[in-house]
Write a structure and sequence with these properties.
This protein has 374 residues and is of the alpha/beta class. It folds into 2 domains: 4-266, TIM Barrel (Alpha-Beta Barrel); 272-368, no CATH class. The protein contains 15 helices and 16 strands. The protein has helices at residues 45-50, 60-65, 69-74, 78-81, 94-99, 126-136, 154-174, 193-206, 222-229, 250-258, 268-273, 306-310, 313-321, 325-351, 355-368, and strands at 4-11, 14-21, 24-28, 30-32, 56-59, 88-91, 104-107, 110-114, 121-124, 140-142, 182-187, 210-213, 242-244, 263-265, 277-280, 283-286. An 8-stranded parallel beta sheet has the order 4-14-13-12-11-10-6-5. A 3-stranded antiparallel beta sheet has the order 1-2-3. The chain has a 3-stranded antiparallel beta sheet with strand order 7-8-9. Helix 6 (126-136) packs across helix 7 (154-174) and helix 7 packs parallel to helix 8. It is globular and about 60 Å long.
Length: 374
């Protein structure tokens, strides 16, 4: 029953693994494109698969509001509903506990929400979150937690973390175990090592199929995040996948992989695709910049995405200036493909025990910036 995970190679703290689910294998380190409302914005599911993505993330809170978990279940579950036959992880709604602070009230039994769509009242408990995620048929269910925005005092983080651990137990008890499906616990504790250690021990006592590191990328900055990641992943079981929630930029991901993290998600590549920003091996490019107006080169030499193989910088610059939807589609495809290429490069480097050399080259190229002559 549950999920199967195997670490097949290591290089320092970094791990190369395989996570087996009912809907397929996820090779780690892995990046999950975010499909909040059962869609990765501006992309067909088939296009997302073509980038090399093996798993998507869906959002319990948003799908609870629209179209509703009952409807998704009636349509055969999220995989069939959105035409994605690969693994899916759903978050629990816990992040919205933080991000929609003006629309919710937290109590021990759960969270009362006012919908940001129409103001309708909802109640999300650990048990209800498990029920919704079961109806969605997600391969990886996340336990319900509370995420505190940093910086915050030790007392505030401690109180929140302890409640999240009680919710973790309730989530696990309500989860329906079946083959190819699993539930992840979420370590909390902010940037306090003693609280992270306490949280990890409580989660291990409960027992999960995987463990997420939550409560980071919430205002603390990269330096603090890396300081936490210097110790937090090693507090979690070595034989289970480790998932850093909501991260992030390419250099965030590299730093986390070096510190032993296996899974990531972030809206960065898709959101940037909608705001003219492209990720490349020489850092980010703002394609609206006038210097691209007459540039016949591809966005990134060597990239095999449709944008880079078929179109010039001048053309995509024109599309952006004209506010054409095709610009968003092509830039999003490129960005998601770039993230998948990065993950494949990191997996290969771990397997061949050259991760340090790979990391140095990646950082050096990012720091060069997008030079005129590639």
């Amino acid at each position: 029953m549950g999920l199967k995970f195997e670490v097949v190679a290591k290089d320092g703290k970094a791990r190369r693994g395989k996570l087996v689910t009912k809907h397929g294998i996820v090779n780690t380190p892995a990046f999950m494109p975010v499909g909040t409302c059962a869609t990765v914005k501006a992309m067909l599911p088939e296009s997302v698969a073509a980038t090399g993505a093996e798993i998507l993330l869906g959002n319990t809170y948003h799908l609870m509001l629209r179209p509703g978990a009952d409807l998704v279940e009636k349509m055969g579950g999220l995989h069939k509903f959105m035409n994605w036959n690969r693994p899916i992880l759903t978050d629990s709604g816990g992040f919205q506990v933080m991000s929609l602070s003006g629309l919710r009230k937290i109590k021990e039994d759960g969270v009362s929400f006012a919908s940001h769509v129409d103001g309708k009242k909802y109640f999300l408990s650990p048990e209800e979150s498990m029920k919704i995620q079961h109806k969605l048929d997600s391969n990886i269910t996340m336990c319900l937690d509370e995420c505190v925005k940093l910086p915050a005092s030790h007392d505030v983080v401690k109180k929140s973390m302890e409640m999240s651990m009680r919710w973790a137990k309730r989530s696990k008890d309500a989860f329906i175990d079946r083959d190819g499906y699993g539930i992840f616990g979420i370590q909390q504790g902010g940037d306090y090592k003693d609280l992270r250690a306490y949280s990890a021990e409580k989660l291990k006592e409960i027992g999960f199929d995987g463990y997420a590191i939550g409560g980071l990328a919430v205002g603390e900055g990269q330096k603090t995040m890396f300081e936490v990641l210097d110790y937090a992943p090693e507090m979690l079981p070595d034989d289970k996948p480790r998932y850093l929630m909501g991260v992030g930029k390419p250099d965030d991901i590299l730093g986390a992989v070096l510190r032993g993290v296996d899974m990531f998600d972030c809206v960065m590549p898709t959101r940037s695709g909608r705001t003219s920003q492209a990720f490349t091996r020489f850092g980010t490019i703002n394609i609206r910049n006038s210097r691209h107006k007459e540039d016949p080169r591809p966005l990134e030499e060597g990239c095999d995405c449709p944008l880079c193989t078929n179109y010039s910088r001048a053309y995509i610059h024109h599309l952006q200036k004209a506010n054409e939807i095709l610009a968003v589609m092509l830039l999003t495809w490129h960005n998601v493909r770039y993230y998948q290429r990065l993950m494949q490069e990191l997996r290969n480097a771990i397997e061949n025990h050259i991760l340090q050399e790979c990391a140095k080259k990646l950082i050096n190229d990012w720091q060069k910036g997008d030079i005129e002559e590639l």
